[in-house]
Design brief:
alpha+beta; 4 strands; binds zinc ion; 2 helices
């Protein structure tokens, strides 16, 4: 949905996603693989807060899953 008039600037980029911002539309463009999601700044802020909350809770619950996770790591590590 990127218009010709869009002049986005890349704010962050990783191997998983990239985030661009268009001043003209005042919209964040979040690129995840082949999918691009558009967020107003206020909505994007809530999204980031929600993701951080989920990550914090994931860290909290991970010890419960540690035996399962370590088994998974062993399987992955044993592959040449
Ligand atoms: Zn735009």
């Amino acid at each position: 949905m990127q218009r010709k008039s869009c002049h986005t600037e890349t704010l962050a980029r990783s191997e998983v996603c990239s985030v661009e911002y268009c001043r003209g539309c005042a919209v964040f463009h979040v690129n995840l693989g082949a999918v691009t999601l558009h967020f107003r700044p206020s909505t994007f802020r809530v999204l980031c807060t929600t993701l951080n909350t989920a990550l914090a809770r994931f860290r909290h619950v991970r010890p419960v899953l540690s035996s399962y996770a370590s088994n998974q790591d062993e399987i992955v590590d044993s592959t040449p």
